[in-house]
Amino acid sequence: MHKFLVIAAKTVLALLSLAGVGLLALSGWLVWHYGYSIGLPTEAQLAVVSPTGPACRTDPKRAYIPLADIQPLLRDAVIAYEQPGFYQSWTLNPIAEIALALGTGRSPRPAGVTQSVARCLLSLTPGNDRQIDPIASIYFMQRVTRSLSRDRILEIYLNDSYLGRSAYGVAAGAEAYFGKALADLGIDEIAFLIVRARRPYPSRSFDTASRDYLIDRMQAAGLISEAQAAAAKSRPLFLKDMPGTQAQPVNQ
Questions:
Q1: CA 194, CA 170: separation in Å to the nearest integer?
Q2: N or C: which end of the chain has fewer CB within 10 A?
Q3: Residues 143, 183: contact at Cβ < 8 Å?
Q4: What band does 36 get if pLDDT is binned at 50, 70 and 90?
C-alpha cells in the first residue's frame, strides 16, 4: 500500500510538472504570437505617439481639439456612457477586470473608450486596418494602457471616433450634424453625438430614446440636474441638412 501511494504521488507530481511546462510553453507562444508574430504595433511605436495631436489619422484639414479644450460635460458624459470608472479604476486591463468581476460577482466594467482607441491605433502598423481576434484585441489593449496616459486615450477617442457623415471626432461631428462649434452644443446635442460614436451609420434604430437614455445616465452620474435632463429630453433635435445648412427635425 505504501509503495502504491509513493508511485501515485510521483505520478501526480510528474503530471503537474508536465502541466506547468505546458502552461509555460503556451504562455511563451501567446507572448510571441500576439506580441510579435501578427504585427501589432509595438510599445516602442506607441511610445513615440505625440502627447497631443493626431494619433491615428493625419489629415491636415481635420480639426483636432486638445482634451483641455473640450467641455468637461462632454468628456464626463462619454465616460459615463462608454466606460464608467475610466479614471477611478485601478486598472484598465480587461483581463484583470474580468478576473475581478468573477471574484466579486459583478459584471465586468465596459471598456468602450479603451477598446475603440486600441482599434484606432492598429493603423500605426501598415496592413493592420483589419479585424483581429478577441485575444489579440485584449493583448493590444493592455499594451495601449501601458504606453499612454488615460487623458491621452480619452483625447484620441474624442478626436478619432467616426460619427457618420464623414466626420471623425466630436468637433467635426458638431459641425456635420448641427453646424455649430463644439463649445456651443446643448446637452441634447452632446448626447446625440456620443450615441453616434457607438452607432455612426444612419438607421431606423436611432430614436430619441437613445438620446434620452444617455441624458438619464448623465443625470445619474451627477453631471446635470433633473431639471436640465427634463429640458434636454423635451427639446426636439434639429440636424443640419446634408446638402446645405437647413436644419431638419430628427425622429428616426
A1: 8
A2: N
A3: no
A4: low
SS3 content of the chain, % helix, strand, coil (to 5): 60, 5, 35
Q: Could you read off the pLDDT of 48-57 as tens digits, one per residue? A: 888 888 888 7
C-alpha span between 40 and 129 (Å, rounded): 11
Using a 10 angstrom Cβ sphere, with 0-12 exposed, 13-18 middle and 19 or more buried, the burial of residue 248 is exposed
Domains in the chain with CATH codes: 30-54+64-160 (no CATH), 166-243 (1.10.3810.10)
Whole-prediction pTM: 0.76
Q: What is the signed CA dihedral for 104, 222, 180, 154, rounded to 10 degrees?
A: -30
pLDDT digits (tens, 9 = 90+) for 201-227: 665 445 688 899 999 999 999 999 999
The per-residue pLDDT for range 112-127, each reduced to its tens digit, is: 898 889 888 888 776 6
Q: Could you tell me the CA-to-CA distances from 92 to 14, 80, 112, 124 in Å, in that order?
A: 38, 15, 11, 21
Burial of 125 (0-12, 13-18, 19+ CB in 10 A): middle
Contacts of residue 92, Cβ cutoff 8 Å, sequence gap at least 6? 86, 111, 114, 141, 145, 150, 153
Q: How confident is the model at residue 43 (pLDDT cuts 50, 70, 90)?
A: confident
In 3D space, the residue among 192, 197, 187 whose CA is nearest the CA of residue 82 turns out to be: 197
Overall size of the chain counted in residues? 252
